[in-house]
Structure formats: C-alpha cells, structure tokens
Amino acid sequence: MHFLAAAHVADRLVRSAEVTERDLVVDFGAGHGAITAPLARTGAGVIAVERDPEFVRRLGIRMSDSGNVKVIPGDVRTFPLPRKAFLVVSSIPYAVSTALFRRLLTPPRTALSRAAIIVEWGFAKRVTAAVPRDLEAAWWAARFELDLVDRIPPRCFSPAPKVASAHLTIRRGEPLSGLAQRALWTVLSAAYRAPRLPARQAMSAVLAGRRAHGVLKAAGIDPAAPAGTVRPDRWAHLARRLAEDRGLHWPPLPKHLNR
Ligand SMILES: C[S@@+](CC[C@H](N)C(=O)[O-])C[C@H]1O[C@@H](n2cnc3c(N)ncnc32)[C@H](O)[C@@H]1O
Predict the structure, then answer these.
(1) Residue 2: CB within 6 Å of ligand 1?
(2) Residue 30: CB within 6 Å of ligand 1?
(3) Are residues 152 and 210 in the same domain?
(4) Does the reported pTM lie above 0.80?
(5) Which GO cellular component terms, listed alphabetically, does the Swiss-Prot or TrEMBL entry include (predicted)?
C-alpha cells in the first residue's frame, strides 16, 4: 500500500474539486487520512470509507474533533453510495479502480456530481483517451468530462510505488434526458460493435430509415470516419438530437448498467 505523503498534492486535489460547505464528499480508501484531513477543513460533510479496522479506529481518533467527518468501515466495491448528490475526493486503492469507476459512472442516474481522484497513470491515460478503446469507457466519457490534470511522481507516496500516478478530475457533461441516454447507449453500442466501419454504415441499422449521412453531418460527425474514431462527446451530441425526433424509438437501457 502506498500512502500519499505530499501534503501539497492532497491540497491541490481537494482544491480542484471546488468543495464547499454545502457538499457531501466521499473519500474512498481513506487510510491514515492524507485526503480526509484537508477535506475536513473545507467544512463539507465528509464520509471516509476504509476497509482496514485498525485504520478505521486510528482515523476515527484523528478526526474526532471534526464534527463534519464520519469514518465508516466499508469496502469500496460494496459501500452504499449516497442517493443525494455527492463528490468523490480520494487517493484510491488502485486494485479497485475499475470497480469504483463502474459504480460511480455507469448507472444512468448516478448521483456523482464531480470528483478529483488519484489513480494509477496507465488507468488515467486509458479513461481520458480522446477516443476510448471500449464501450464502457465511451459511455463514461460521453456523459462526464474526465480530465488528466497532472502526473504525480512516485516520490510523493510512502513507500514509493513503481509506477507514476495521476490527478484526475471528473465533471458531469451537458445533461442528457432519459431518452437521450437510451439513444446514446444504442448509438455507442453500434459504433463499438463495428469500430472499423464508416460511421454512416455503423449507424444505418439504428436510424430506422433516416439517412445516416445527413443525420451524422448535421451532428458534426464525419459520416466516412471509422465509427471507432468518433469522440464520445460527438456521440452524445448526436444522441441529444436523435432524442428530439419523435419518430425514432430507443430500447430501454440494459439492466446491467444499474448494477
Ligand atoms: C493506497 S492506500 C491510500 C490511503 C490514503 N487515501 C492515502 O492517500 O494515503 C489505500 C487504502 O485503501 C484501503 N483499501 C484497500 N482496498 C480497499 C477496499 N476494497 N475498500 C476500502 N478500502 C480499501 C487500504 O486499507 C488503504 O488504507
């Protein structure tokens, strides 16, 4: 386990999430409180989740004067997420990065409003790629802005890990209605099923008789570009436009997105 040992990195992480007293913030894998302590000073409601009972006990003592902080034993993968809007500010256990991102970003009605998270460098590069490699990452990037803010060198942790880390921020993109999310899932699934096909061909089956060429052009997508090279925000833009076309029908979202 690699604990954050650079206070300026923790402070910058907290600042980048623009935490206010009105916010509810979750720190996942709180450890000794490298992030929990600066979060406590913002005055926000803070939930520090930690799996190791001894860390929970010690962090509870450290935070006992901060009435706005609750230290709760729990596992990142199963801890019940708040139902009301919340932020995540954490240096997370890297082994559960995908599981946590899936919980935060996949559900169509996730209550996550924004986040600042330290993750492994390679993971950050993958999820912030201009064109994601897979459908799941595209679903995240079409609905949220994921930005790689900075590289964090191994020396900022104790003990120093072998790999570099990254400061990542997450913000909600422009809102998508329920119908637009259904259109988006259908469009993305078609694009990632046939990533090498020109976008107009990949989309022809999902546009029910509409001329794919014209619809894509109007949404700012090159109809001849391979579907797998189109940026997720472009697909989201297309989905918003498609949702306004009352003549088109979109299947319900698959249940697994809500798990
Ligand atoms: C890399 S340390 C980071 C600790 C602290 N956030 C920091 O920056 O110093 C990861 C922490 O997450 C805890 N942890 C590991 N797996 C976890 C899980 N599945 N659920 C909750 N906590 C976990 C570990 O006990 C450890 O305290």
Answers:
(1) yes
(2) yes
(3) no
(4) yes
(5) cytosol
Is the C-beta atom of 3 inside 6 A of ligand 1?
Answer: yes
Category of 29 on φ-ψ map: left (φ > 0), alpha (ψ -120 to 50) or beta: left
Q: How far is the CA of 21 from the centre of ligand 1 (A)?
A: 25
**Parallel, antiparallel, or unpaired: how do β-strands 45-50 and 24-28 relate?**
parallel
Q: Whose CA is nearest to atom 27 of ligand 1?
A: 31
Encoded tokens for 183? 């259109």
Domain of 251?
178-258
Same domain? 232 vs 251:
yes
Of the residues 137, 172, 207, the one at which a domain ends: 172
Residue 36, φ and ψ in degrees, nearest 5:
-60, -40
State whether 165 and 195 are in the same domain.
no
> What pLDDT, in 10s, does the model give residues 50-88?
999 999 999 999 999 999 999 999 999 999 999 999 999
Q: Would the annotation count 204 as a binding residue?
A: no
Other C-beta atoms closer than 10 Å to the C-beta of 35 total: 29
Same domain, 236 and 157: no
Residue matched to tokens 């492994």:
120
